[in-house]
């Protein structure tokens, strides 16, 4: 069941769209913000609310890489792997993260602390290599800096 | 040197709030426009200013606006959409404008909205720009509070609502018609044209899509006129431009310069030249979907026509530098991986062709390349060209490949001959 | 028409049509995937690329997608240009990168559009040396197989299933080269039109599961033109057989009837022909109470002659599911006064009224395809999603028509699918529905309203009276709300071009039909061009009504009981499905002899003293009259090995045995058409329904077998390795052989779609005048009824009263099911899986008042007949109305509508 808070938050977003379904991406985001990811159950509840078929909604949800249809950790690390970051060494950064966290791209640590995902250019090329954790951007990465950064996320 | 776009931006600091923005002359242009009450005249001014779209394609902005049906034929609501999806690798210019001076964008939106008689505006912002999201949301709230947005703006009778839509990822959302589908809560598949968005866009209604930087230029044009804007430039295109450099240069960054500054000026004066120990091999002048220009083309002027004449595109004006210690095959592979991953999956050449290129490049880079692979790479640069695919993603994707094959042919062949990457 | 230039030659094409359609219409070969004439263009696959030149002097040209470009005067394009030909070849190469190349084990092989296009573009050698992507497949129910690895991402399946058929349980997921087409989770496809995916999918992702169970390649199927026997719409089909078994049914295009699609009842109902309840030889019972025994044909005819001798007073009971010829033969055997329709008197009355309305016509009845073009539609009392599925599929397109009109204003042609679909998705059609409870079409209707049958009829009468207040009878005692509703519907119909009223026999209500007719009369009076369309229950319901019967089953019963008759001949009809069991038993018990001619063992044949094995539709040729009054010929596709033949042949043989000279002239099917035409002017058109049996194409018959038909000597090797002459087929210009002229036969004789280079169903393009338009020649069938315009100007005046119900009394109404209500299809295993269990439907408030809930047992009583049924809660059902499904196996037959009682079944707790 969608909670009252979820519904209230969605109603604000949905009001801007000519059709209820227009707000489905916003609604997915609201739900993801509160629940971490979009489970089949969440999807079905939301489809019902939006008067869409479950598969219609899933067709949209699975298109977008930042809608998570699988469980993720408490913090999601998005590592930029596009050209400027690549040219300045994002592969080493990725290797280091994999080594430190013991996971590879697409995986979540056993303690559910981090999920590691590749991401398209973060628009921080002047500070390449860069990554994002949750809503925070971190640029000019070096190994030691990564340790410091990770420590900030429990 | 004048920096009308960025003069009020202090990187690393809070952006001007509405009071500071007004104090610096903000919203004056809006008041003037509302007082003139001449949307048609405003479109003409923008046309005369030679403002060309800063989203990559360089379409003349005033002309685009003029396609919205007016008068008898008018259909409402009319939508204005700000394309703030900035995801082109190597591009980071809109971030500065969004984070650094959101009121400038909002004033531009209201003025542009007035010109095209819009009823609603959306800022389509990429999800990862969380700081920008926060700052824009706040600026919108402030502008509403002051009566710059909402019903009957400053008593002019003109009304406009602005909403911020933060996206859920995918580069293709930046393509303007895919963006419309994303905003309608659909899969972001580009739309066939015709119908063109100015006539049949969001929810089937007239819609103008403009880049952030394009719209940020609007207040100054409205305030000071077309001549002044053209005078800012060193070329036929009007205004200043945000130029950026990333890669192994001493000072990667962004600078507002007269349109038509030379590559040399940008690279050597502003970015400080290559880092010590690294030499320049080539640049991509305007983001990941522009052709490489070799290191000897530093005198090319960075305006739409000059870069095109030199065999590339101005694109977003943010250049990526290829140095001598980076494998060009690896770099092109990285680009191709990006485009293959971001293909929407609608049309065959892009959905299937790009992954094939990726696998072929991977093989070459990993020392498993074959002589025939070169043929496949060459063939695809033509096959994925404009008109062959449904939208401009794939044609953009093969631009660096095509130029790369010409410029770095020997590097490709070396990979194949020696069955390994010479840079590894 | 405009002139365009293709590879230097001028062609006349329809202006504004897309160039792909134009090229195909002119007979040129241009490959394509994502485009489909019924779905329009989206430009996704990039296969239809051509080169366009600005002028004669332009030598470079530019590559464009033909499907996305309108044909305009002076356009110059090239298909053969080497650059664009190379591009098209590359498109196949890309599509093949991940395709498994599993043609040898693929059910689509041999009729695969992807195979055809691959050959057409010339892609032959593979340069890709990398691994292929693979997908998991899904279970999709009894009708379809899913093999996603063969997918070429043309998006047609979603565009058909989701956009066109309006179902929500299939879609496209993910993006880039990971796109997946299927359901969110494995499971049965919910749409009643899922089978069309088999023909929509250009490769082997969606294939026919029933065919797969006894698989045969297309070229090894013996095929012939046929007509669906599972409802009255008369969709054209192509059944295919091998080794004396029916193996599948495919769509046969008829522009005026079903177009490109079939419903699943029609596509998958065929397996009853193979079922083990078939009667293969004559059976005789020497006296009541003893077992039936097998006899030879000779003995069977002798017995028949004895049972039907001069001394006997014989009546006949015909059937709405038997051909016109068989019913006619029976009518001649027993005489018109003794010929009874095999349905209740009440149903016959309804059917006759419909026939009269159609013949004397307040309005013309449109063809099925014309229903999609109506300006406004009012569905009165009929659940067409279940009783006339393809009509429902057409009416579903009404929102789209609206969107097309809106987009035409900004110069977007109707084939430009995406922008139109985006609007259509949120549109409602100019569609108004008044039905007893919610129907599948309600979601696309502007307004829908549910009520008891008399209320619906009153609404209909009221609409007529709003339209023509001076002359149409008024309705007393309407509430304000009802008046507004009637006004709204009247103004929608009155303001529309070609408004359409849809009703039918589903509720077995005379008042509904009269109300529908009145609306048409009123519309006609105010200068409109109304159309009327009736859904009828069975494949030849209207044919039976046109033939004219002395009465229904009650009439037959009283004839027997009163001694006016003592012997009954029943053809292709199980009377136990038509009336209450006691009635049927009483009918048979009062007859001295019962002769039954049918193809399946059923309670009626079990009661018979003589049973003669009739040919099922696939083994017979004959004529059916659909609900539009269109007589259509169906042809045998297989020759049964046993003593099975058309009912009319059995009757003819009996008549000859009895020395009836009339039957001496009945040598072949055509002779019956001639006889019918001579006796009844309504049947004058019958002789031109299809070319007669003497028709020859270049001196030869039309082969039912493809030129590649394999194993024709081997398949009889256990008998004889020498080639046998093909079985005799005197009734038709078709032959059970592969010998024959390869040219296209006239439309009503097309046994399969094939053209050089086109092995898939898309070969149909080569048979149409314009792609998506009529077949070359003329679409099959002859309309027997063309009413004299405005012949009926009289209104029906019996407006039903709004009947208050007595305490505890319920209105019991019939409910129809696409799967289950029709007798024959329900015998196919796949369809049987989908038939509901018998139930009684109740409004939730009534249910709770009665202490009932979903699944509880209720006792239903009508006129002394009671039975126990499980309760199904249907919120849209009005109060004091209970719904009973029609025709389900295992449920008693109530004659509905009726008033009755529903109470809680006492259970010992
Ligand atoms: C694949 C693709 C991605 C694009 N991404 C962006 C983008 O992120 N931001 C943007 O402003 N324009 C982007 N564009 C260009 C837009 O389609 C459109 O031309 C632009 O927003 C128009 O604005 P302008 O006229 O102000 O330049 C993209 C185009 C393509 C083909
Ligand atoms: S080129 Fe085709 S598949 Fe690629 S993004 Fe554009 S429409 Fe989608
Ligand atoms: S048929 Fe034209 S692009 Fe698919």
Report on the architecture of this protein.
- The complex is a heterotrimer of chains A (about 150), B (about 425) and C (about 900).
- Chain A is of the alpha+beta class.
- In chain A, about 45% of the residues lie in helices and about 10% in strands.
- Chain A contains seven helices and four strands, in the order ααααβααβββα.
- In chain A, strands 2-1-3-4 form a four-stranded mixed sheet, covered by helices on one side.
- The model of chain A has no long low-confidence stretch (mean pLDDT about 95).
- Chain B is of the alpha/beta class and about 425 residues long.
- In chain B, about 45% of the residues lie in helices and about 10% in strands.
- Chain B is built from 18 helices and nine strands.
- Chain B has helices spanning about 20-25, 30-35, 40-50, 60-65, 95-100, 100-115, 130-145, 175-185, 210-215, 220-225, 225-230, 265-270, 305-310, 330-340, 350-365, 370-385, 395-405, 410-420, and strands spanning about 80-85, 120-125, 160-165, 205-210, 240-245, 255-260, 280-285, 295, 320-325.
- In chain B, strand 5 and strand 6 (about 255-260) form a beta hairpin.
- In chain C, the strands form nine sheets. In chain C, strands 15-14-25-24-23-16-17 form a seven-stranded mixed sheet, sandwiched between helices.
- In chain C, helix 15 (about 455-465) packs parallel to helix 17.
- The N and C termini of chain C lie far apart (about 80 Å).
- The chains are: A alpha+beta (about 150), B alpha/beta (about 425), C alpha/beta (about 900).
- At the A-B interface, helix 2 and helix 5 of A face strand 3, strand 5, strand 9 and helix 14 of B.
- The complex binds flavin mononucleotide, iron/sulfur cluster and FE2/S2 (inorganic) cluster (FES).
- FE2/S2 (inorganic) cluster binds near residues 32, 44 and 46 of chain C.
Low-confidence stretches of chain B are none
Which oligomeric form is depicted? Answer: heterotrimer
* Ends distance of chain A: 29 Å
Q: Give the class of chain B from helix and strand content and strand pairing.
A: alpha/beta
Fraction in helix of chain B: 40-55%
């Amino acid at each position: 069941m969608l909670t009252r808070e979820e519904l209230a938050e969605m109603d604000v977003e949905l009001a801007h769209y000519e059709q209820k379904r227009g707000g489905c991406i916003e609604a997915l985001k609201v739900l993801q913000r509160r629940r971490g990811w979009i489970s089949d159950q969440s999807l079905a509840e939301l489809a019902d609310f939006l008067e869409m078929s479950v598969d219609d909604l899933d067709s949209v949800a699975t298109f977008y890489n930042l809608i998570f249809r699988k469980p993720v950790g408490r913090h999601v690390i998005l590592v930029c792997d596009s050209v400027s970051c690549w040219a300045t060494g994002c592969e080493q950064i990725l290797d280091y993260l994999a080594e430190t966290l013991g996971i590879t791209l697409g995986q979540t640590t056993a303690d559910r602390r981090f999920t590691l995902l590749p991401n398209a250019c973060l628009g921080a090329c002047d500070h390449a290599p860069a990554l994002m954790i949750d809503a925070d951007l971190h640029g000019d990465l070096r190994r030691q800096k990564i340790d410091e950064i990770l420590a900030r996320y429990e | 040197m004048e920096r009308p776009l960025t003069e009020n931006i202090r990187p690393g600091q809070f952006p001007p709030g509405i009071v500071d923005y007004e104090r610096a002359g903000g919203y004056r242009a809006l008041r003037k426009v509302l007082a003139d009450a001449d949307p048609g005249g405003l479109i003409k001014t923008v046309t005369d200013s030679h403002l060309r779209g800063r989203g990559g394609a360089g379409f003349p902005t005033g002309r685009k606006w003029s396609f919205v049906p007016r008068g008898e034929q008018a259909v409402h609501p009319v939508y204005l959409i700000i394309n703030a999806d900035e995801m082109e690798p190597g591009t980071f210019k809109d971030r500065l404008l969004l984070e650094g001076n959101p009121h400038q964008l909002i004033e531009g939106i209201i003025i542009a909205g007035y010109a095209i008689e819009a009823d609603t505006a959306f800022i389509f912002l990429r999800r990862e720009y969380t700081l920008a999201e926060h700052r824009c949301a706040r600026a919108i709230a402030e502008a509403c509070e002051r009566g710059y947005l909402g019903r009957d703006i400053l008593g002019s009778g003109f009304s406009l609502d602005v909403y911020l839509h933060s996206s859920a990822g995918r580069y293709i959302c930046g393509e303007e018609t895919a963006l419309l589908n994303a905003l309608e809560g659909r899969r972001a598949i580009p739309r066939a044209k015709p119908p063109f968005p100015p006539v049949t866009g969001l929810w089937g209604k007239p819609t103008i899509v403009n880049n952030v930087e394009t719209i940020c230029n609007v207040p100054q044009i409205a305030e000071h006129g077309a001549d002044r804007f053209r005078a800012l430039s060193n070329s036929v295109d009007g205004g200043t431009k945000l130029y950026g450099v990333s890669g192994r240069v001493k000072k990667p960054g962004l600078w507002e310069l007269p349109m038509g500054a030379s590559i040399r000026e940008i690279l050597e004066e502003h970015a400080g030249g290559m880092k010590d120990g690294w030499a320049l091999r080539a640049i991509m002048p305007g983001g990941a979907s522009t052709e490489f220009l070799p290191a000897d083309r530093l005198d090319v002027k960075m305006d739409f026509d000059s870069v095109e004449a030199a065999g590339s595109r101005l694109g977003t004006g943010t250049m990526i530098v290829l140095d001598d210690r980076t494998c060009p095959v690896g770099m092109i592979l990285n680009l191709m991986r990006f485009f293959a991953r971001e293909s929407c999956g609608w049309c065959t050449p892009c959905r299937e062709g790009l992954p094939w290129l990726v696998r072929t490049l991977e093989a070459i880079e990993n020392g498993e390349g074959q002589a025939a692979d070169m043929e496949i790479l060459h063939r695809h640069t033509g096959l994925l060209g404009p008109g062959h695919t449904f939208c401009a993603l794939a044609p953009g994707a093969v631009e660096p490949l095509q130029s790369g094959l010409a410029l770095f042919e020997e590097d490709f062949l070396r990979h194949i001959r020696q069955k390994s990457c010479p840079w590894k | 028409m405009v002139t365009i230039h293709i590879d230097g030659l001028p062609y006349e094409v329809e202006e504004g049509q897309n160039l792909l359609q134009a090229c195909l219409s002119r007979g040129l070969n241009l490959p394509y995937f994502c485009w489909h004439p019924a779905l329009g263009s989206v430009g996704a696959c990039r296969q239809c690329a051509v080169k366009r030149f600005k002028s004669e002097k332009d030598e470079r040209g530019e590559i464009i997608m033909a499907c996305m470009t309108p044909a305009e005067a002076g356009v110059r394009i090239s298909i053969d240009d080497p650059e664009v030909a190379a591009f098209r070849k590359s498109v196949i190469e890309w599509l093949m990168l991940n395709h498994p190349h599993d043609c040898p084990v693929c059910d689509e092989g041999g009729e695969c559009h992807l195979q055809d296009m691959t050959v057409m573009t010339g892609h032959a050698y593979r340069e890709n040396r990398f691994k292929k992507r693979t997908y998991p497949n899904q279970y999709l129910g009894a009708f379809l197989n899913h093999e996603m690895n063969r997918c070429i991402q043309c998006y047609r399946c979603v565009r058909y299933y989701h956009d066109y058929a309006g179902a929500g349980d299939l879609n496209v997921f993910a993006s880039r080269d990971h796109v997946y087409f299927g359901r969110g989770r494995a499971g049965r496809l919910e749409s009643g039109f899922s089978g069309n995916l088999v023909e929509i999918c250009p490769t082997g992702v969606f294939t026919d599961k029933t065919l797969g169970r006894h698989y045969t390649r297309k070229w090894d199927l013996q095929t012939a033109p046929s007509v669906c026997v599972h409802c009255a719409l008369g969709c054209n089909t192509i059944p295919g057989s091998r080794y004396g078994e029916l193996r599948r049914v495919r769509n046969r295009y008829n522009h005026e009837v079903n177009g490109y699609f079939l419903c699943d009842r029609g596509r998958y109902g065929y397996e009853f022909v193979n079922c083990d309840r078939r009667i293969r030889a004559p059976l005789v019972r020497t006296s009541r109470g003893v077992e039936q025994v097998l006899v030879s044909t000779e003995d069977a005819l002798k017995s028949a002659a004895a049972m039907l001798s001069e001394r006997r007073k014989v009546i006949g009971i015909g059937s709405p599911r038997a051909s016109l010829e068989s019913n006619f033969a029976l009518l001649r055997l027993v005489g018109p006064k003794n010929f009874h329709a095999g349905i209740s008197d009440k149903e016959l009355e309804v059917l006759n009224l419909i026939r009269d309305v159609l013949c004397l016509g307040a309005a013309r009845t449109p063809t099925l395809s014309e229903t999609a073009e109506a300006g406004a539609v009012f569905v009165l009392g009929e659940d067409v999603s279940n009783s006339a599925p393809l009509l429902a599929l057409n009416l579903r397109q009404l929102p789209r028509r609206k969107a097309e009109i809106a987009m035409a204003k900004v110069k977007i042609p109707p084939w430009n699918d995406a922008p139109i679909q985006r609007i259509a998705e949120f549109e409602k059609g100019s569609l108004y529905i008044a039905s007893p409870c919610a129907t599948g079409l309600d979601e696309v209707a502007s307004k829908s309203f549910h009520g008891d049958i008399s209320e619906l009829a009153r609404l209909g009468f009221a609409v007529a009276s709003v339209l023509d207040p001076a002359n149409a009878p008024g309705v007393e005692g309407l509430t304000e709300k009802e008046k507004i509703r009637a006004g709204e519907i009247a103004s929608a119909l009155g303001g529309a071009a070609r408004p359409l009223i849809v009703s039918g026999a589903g509720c077995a209500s005379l008042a509904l039909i009269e109300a529908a007719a009145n609306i048409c009369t009123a519309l006609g009076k105010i200068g409109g061009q109304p159309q009327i369309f009736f859904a009828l229950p069975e494949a030849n319901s209207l044919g039976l009504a046109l033939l004219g019967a002395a009465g229904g089953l009650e009439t037959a019963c009283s004839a027997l009981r009163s001694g006016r008759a003592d012997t009954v001949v029943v053809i292709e009809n199980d009377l136990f499905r038509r009336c209450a069991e006691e009635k049927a038993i009483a009918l048979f018990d009062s007859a001295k002899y019962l002769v039954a001619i049918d193809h399946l063992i059923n309670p009626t044949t079990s009661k018979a003293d003589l049973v003669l094995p009739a040919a099922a539709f696939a083994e017979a040729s004959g004529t059916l009259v659909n609900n539009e009054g269109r007589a259509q010929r169906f042809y045998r596709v297989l020759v049964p090995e046993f003593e099975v033949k058309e009912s009319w042949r059995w009757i003819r043989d009996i008549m000859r045995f009895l020395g009836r000279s009339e039957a001496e002239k009945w040598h072949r099917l055509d002779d019956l058409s001639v006889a019918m035409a001579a006796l009844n002017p309504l049947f004058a058109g019958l002789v031109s329904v299809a070319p007669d049996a003497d028709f020859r194409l270049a001196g030869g018959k039309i082969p039912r077998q493809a030129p590649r038909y394999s194993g024709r000597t081997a398949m009889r090797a256990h008998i004889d390795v020498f080639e046998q002459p093909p079985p005799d087929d005197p009734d038709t210009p078709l032959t059970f052989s592969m010998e024959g002229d390869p040219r296209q036969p006239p439309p009503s004789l097309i046994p399969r779609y094939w053209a050089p280079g086109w092995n898939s169903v898309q070969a149909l393009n080569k048979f149409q005048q314009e792609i998506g338009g009529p077949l070359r020649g003329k679409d099959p069938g002859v309309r027997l009824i063309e009413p004299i315009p405005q012949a009926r100007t009289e209104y029906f005046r019996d407006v039903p009263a709004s009947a208050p119900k007595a305490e505890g009394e319920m209105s019991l109404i019939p409910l129809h099911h696409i799967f289950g209500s029709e007798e024959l299809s329900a015998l196919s295993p796949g369809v049987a899986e989908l038939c509901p269990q018998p139930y009684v439907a109740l409004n939730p408030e009534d249910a709770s008042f009665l202490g009932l809930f979903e699944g509880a047992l209720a006792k239903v009583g009508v006129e002394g007949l009671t039975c126990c049924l499980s309760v199904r809660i249907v919120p849209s059902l009005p109060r004091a109305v209970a719904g009973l499904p029609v025709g389900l196996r295992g449920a008693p037959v109530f004659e509905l509508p009726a008033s009755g009682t529903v109470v809680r079944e006492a259970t010992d707790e």
